[in-house]
């Protein structure tokens, strides 16, 4: 007898996986059964196993297997460091190179009893592609035994798609560089990413997505690190998302950054892929000059920057409907609709949504948030990664914003 596929514990109709172009996405997979219940409440190790089994099941509906995963990202609630988490997830991938694995410790999860959610980006059959390149990620000597001789991956190129693991300013020996200096840590991280991209035949100019995390919730805490990251790009830069965080490894780390890029090979040479971008005047600009874009299309994908309820036609960093999650969510979704419209797309064309939202950690707050997003999408929800954030720390600018959402849409 065939078992029923797992579901999120939400009332709204939702997809667990979807594809845009050659990429397939799974949202925040947890240890859910077919009724949306956590099978092993509070049991972290068994929830990892259940979540990975659910990713495999969701990918199968897109014609993919675990070995087709290029990038894996885990938001987890447990006292584990990055290397323990990367090693725990790597064991589910038997082939080398293993995928790029990003990890993010979180104090809150969206659903009761949940301790981990895992997102995947896959490309069917990439291991048989003529252009596969991998850059090892240095593992500190005292953590190498976790990998049983295998090589951790810092950057992976599967044809045109390139993913880099998120990282702090930890060096190859496991020491944190520039303690208490977030700007210097940002430059250290970006320099390592530049080296990884170069080894993959690419550069920051090929990036389509930047995701970052930082300690703080005010403009004064955000701006210096934002300037440091932005200085490594020139226009047109990637679509960016940077949100506050609550905990990073190792101790003293103040920021963490990862990037996704795309680059083609033409006649044996690596080439930049031209992209189309649109920025309707209603959509806010950043409070400091940065080279990022709000929405870009290349190949069959549209990549969105993290949208928050920024005041329209404005670059002061002010939010509308301050501190009100549900109204701000509706407004943010209207900005996403504005950004997709020039591409001939709507929110119903989204194939992945990553949502950061203010919460005290209750499942009821998650349900209310998701229901609002569903109303705005106007159809079946795409795969969702739902990351609740403490109200005291959430928000881009001085605690005024309670939500930030980005996603990937089908491009054509």
Proportion in β-strands? 25-35%
Structural class: alpha+beta
The number of strands is: 18
Any idea what the radius of gyration is?
20 Å
Main pleated-sheet profile: 7 strands, mixed
What sort of overall outline do the alpha carbons produce when their principal axes are compared?
Answer: globular
Mean pLDDT: 95
How large is the count of helical segments? 6
> What portion of residues is helical?
10-25%
Low-pLDDT segments, ≥5 res: 392-397
Roughly how many Å apart are the termini?
Answer: 38 Å
| Topology pattern, helix = H, strand = E | EEHEHEEEEEHEHEEEEEEHEHEE
Keywords:
6 helices; 6-stranded mixed β-sheet; alpha+beta; 7-stranded mixed β-sheet; 412 residues
Question: How does this structure look, described?
Answer:
With 412 residues, the protein is an alpha+beta fold. It is 21% helix and 27% strand. It is built from six helices and 18 strands. Strands 6, 7, 8, 9, 10, 11 and 12 form a seven-stranded mixed beta sheet that branches. A six-stranded mixed beta sheet has the order 13-14-15-18-16-17, covered by helices on one side. The protein has a five-stranded mixed beta sheet with strand order 1-2-5-3-4. Strand 3 (69-76), helix 2 (82-90) and strand 4 (100-105) form a beta-alpha-beta unit. The protein is globular, with a radius of gyration of 20 Å. The chain starts with 16 loop residues before the first strand and ends with a strand. 53% of the residues are buried. Mean pLDDT is 95; it is low at 392-397.
């Amino acid at each position: 007898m065939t078992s029923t596929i797992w579901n999120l514990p939400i009332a709204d109709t939702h997809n667990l996986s979807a594809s845009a172009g050659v990429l397939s996405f799974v949202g925040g997979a947890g240890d859910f059964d077919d009724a949306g219940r956590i099978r092993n409440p509070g049991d972290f190790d068994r929830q990892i196993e259940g979540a990975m089994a659910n990713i495999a099941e969701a990918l199968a509906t897109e014609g993919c297997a675990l070995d087709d995963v290029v990038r894996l990202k885990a938001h987890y609630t447990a006292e584990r460091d990055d290397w323990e988490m990367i090693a725990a997830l790597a064991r589910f991938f038997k082939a080398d190179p293993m995928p790029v694995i990003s990890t993010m410790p979180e104090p809150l999860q969206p659903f009761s009893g949940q301790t981990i959610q895992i997102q995947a980006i896959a490309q069917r059959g990439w291991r048989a592609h003529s252009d596969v390149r991998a850059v090892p990620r240095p593992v500190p000597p005292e953590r190498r035994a976790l990998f049983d001789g295998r090589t951790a991956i810092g950057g992976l190129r599967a044809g045109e798609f390139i993913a880099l693991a998120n990282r702090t300013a930890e060096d190859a020996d496991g020491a944190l560089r520039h303690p208490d200096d977030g700007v210097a840590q940002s430059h250290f991280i970006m320099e390592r990413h530049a080296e990884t991209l170069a080894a993959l035949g690419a550069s920051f100019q090929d990036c389509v997505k930047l995701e970052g995390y930082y300690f703080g919730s005010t403009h004064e805490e955000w701006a210096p690190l934002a300037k440091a990251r932005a200085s490594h790009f020139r226009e047109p830069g990637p679509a960016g998302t940077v949100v506050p965080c609550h905990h990073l490894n190792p101790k003293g780390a103040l920021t963490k950054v990862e990037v996704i890029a795309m680059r083609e090979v033409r006649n044996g040479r690596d080439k930049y892929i031209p992209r189309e971008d649109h920025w309707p005047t209603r959509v806010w600009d950043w409070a400091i000059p940065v080279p990022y874009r709000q929405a870009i299309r290349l190949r069959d994908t549209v990549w969105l920057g993290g949208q928050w309820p920024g005041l329209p036609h404005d670059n002061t960093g002010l939010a509308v409907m301050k501190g009100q999650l549900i109204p701000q969510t509706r407004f943010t979704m209207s900005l996403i609709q504005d950004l997709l419209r020039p591409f001939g797309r709507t929110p119903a064309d989204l194939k992945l949504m990553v949502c950061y939202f203010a919460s005290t950690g209750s499942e009821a707050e998650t349900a209310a948030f998701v229901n609002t997003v569903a109303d705005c999408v106007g159809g079946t929800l795409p795969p969702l990664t739902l990351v609740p954030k403490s109200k005291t720390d959430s928000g881009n600018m001085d605690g005024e914003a309670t939500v930030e959402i980005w996603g990937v849409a089908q491009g054509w």
